[in-house]
Specification:
The protein is of the alpha/beta class. It has helices spanning 13-17, 37-46, 69-79, 93-104, 124-132, 150-167, 183-191, 230-244, 247-266, 270-292, 295-298, and strands at residues 23-31, 54-63, 83-88, 109-112, 137-143, 179-182, 211-217, 301-304. Helices cover 45% and strands 17% of the residues.
Length: 305
């Protein structure tokens, strides 16, 4: 099992003695070279005022760090029974690591976030209160800020517009994966392998789900630096589109591209037609592989606690 026998912190005793059921919430964080940020993050979370009958547990998924992150997590887990970690043998990226964390979390709810203050720790008490009030999803939404670098703002707007045109999926109220999800929602996310590449909830507005959105301002990350190069962002963008597009819309893409390729062929531009057909084949192969992919099965763990 991932988690050791539950150790009840002193502050939860009174709640349990009064007959209140303990609510366990796992905070899942993917980390790479975050040796300096992890202690600060844990201390900030520990300083928050949360309901007495709530127990927070940390689950760090370490992905190919080259600093002292693994040793730090190992020592932290030995000292605190509410801190756990998985160290992956091969790099799978932030979203893959988070997906691993979702699969290993066992709490009543799961919070996905970063450690670098791009996702404000101060929102956690409100997220927890909304969950205790019956929300299935508490989705944090980052407000656009004119203080953010111009190229980052333009890139974000351009990507969101292209994603909407190609898939019909709007990210305006789901522009970050910083969210709390209930146990049933977590399990539904894990049932679709395509989610392991983008971690957006395509069923968030489905009838019957109770959703609360929390808005926050964030100019730039306060600690650490982005791990995404241009090529990694491009790769993520391609996977993002294929992750959220519906099968009917994907089929429509192929029909349009196929018609365009045939037109090129009969117009004498056969090299261009062959290129379009090849592109269609790549899309189909990638889409089918994402639908059948066993990403979690390929994740190998070096150590965990």
């Amino acid at each position: 099992m991932l988690f050791r026998s539950k150790v009840i912190a002193p502050e939860t005793h009174s709640a349990l003695e009064a007959g209140t059921q303990l609510t366990i919430i796992d905070i899942v964080v993917a980390v790479r070279n975050e040796e300096l940020n992890i202690p600060r993050f844990i201390n900030e979370v520990r300083s928050l005022k949360i309901p007495e009958a709530v127990q927070l547990r940390f689950l760090f998924i370490e992905d190919s760090s080259t600093d002292g992150t693994v040793e730090l997590l190992r020592n932290s887990a030995l000292q605190d029974s509410d801190i756990h970690y998985y160290s992956l043998a091969n790099p799978f990226g932030q979203v893959g690591a988070l997906s691993m964390g979702l699969a290993q979390a066992t709490g009543d709810a799961v919070i996905m976030m970063d450690v670098d203050e791009g996702h404000p720790v101060g929102l956690l008490p409100a997220m927890i209160r909304h969950f205790l009030d019956g929300m299935d999803i508490v989705q944090c939404v980052r407000r656009a800020s004119p203080k953010r670098a111009a190229h980052r703002r333009l890139g974000t707007h351009g990507f969101n517009f292209l994603l909407w045109v190609l898939t019909g999926f709007r990210t305006s109220t789901q522009n970050v994966y910083f969210r709390l999800v209930s146990r049933p929602v977590c399990e539904e996310i894990l049932r679709n392998p395509r989610n392991f590449h983008f971690l957006r909830i395509t069923f968030i507005d489905r009838a019957g789900l109770k959703v609360q959105r929390l808005y926050f301002n964030s100019d730039e990350r306060r600690f650490g630096a982005s791990k995404y190069s241009f090529l990694r962002l491009l790769h993520l963008s391609i996977y993002a589109v294929l992750s959220v597009v519906s099968i009917p819309r994907f089929t429509l893409w192929l029909l349009v591209l196929g018609a365009f390729a045939i037109l090129l062929w009969f117009s004498g531009a056969w090299p261009a037609a062959v290129a379009v057909f090849a592109f269609m084949l790549v899309l189909v192969v990638k889409f089918v592989s994402m639908c059948r992919e066993d990403l979690l099965g390929r994740l190998k763990v070096l150590e965990h606690s």
